[in-house]
Design a protein that fits this description.
The structure is a single chain. The protein has two domains: 38 residues; 51 residues. 85% of the residues lie in helices and 0% in strands. The relative contact order is 0.04. The model has no long low-confidence stretch (mean pLDDT 83).
Length: 94
């Protein structure tokens, strides 16, 4: 066999090796991405439980904030009712 046959065969072998290596690398990256996005070893249930607990804690805190806001609004409304009487020099009833 002469160089006119060996050069194309060598080029074909080199291109084939490069293409298969790239395809294997891409498949490996896809598999790793799937594993990162969808854990299958029981972590999903634990994560969901932690998320649920965090959401419940936030709901309790939001309710406390809204109760405080209602209380402050009530105080300000009562103070606004008394403000004209105080401004006119009247006494507030104890």
């Amino acid at each position: 066999m002469g160089p006119e046959v060996l050069v194309p065969l060598g080029a074909f072998a080199m291109v084939t090796t490069i293409v298969t290596s790239v395809l294997r690398y891409r498949e490996r990256m896809r598999t790793q991405d799937r594993e990162v996005l969808m854990p299958t070893n029981g972590d999903t249930a634990l994560r969901l439980e932690r998320i649920e607990a965090a959401i419940e804690a936030m709901a309790v805190e939001v309710e406390r904030i809204s109760e405080g806001q209602r209380f402050v609004t009530k105080l300000l409304a009562e103070r606004a009712k008394d403000a004209p009487a105080i401004a006119a020099g009247e006494r507030r009833a104890p």
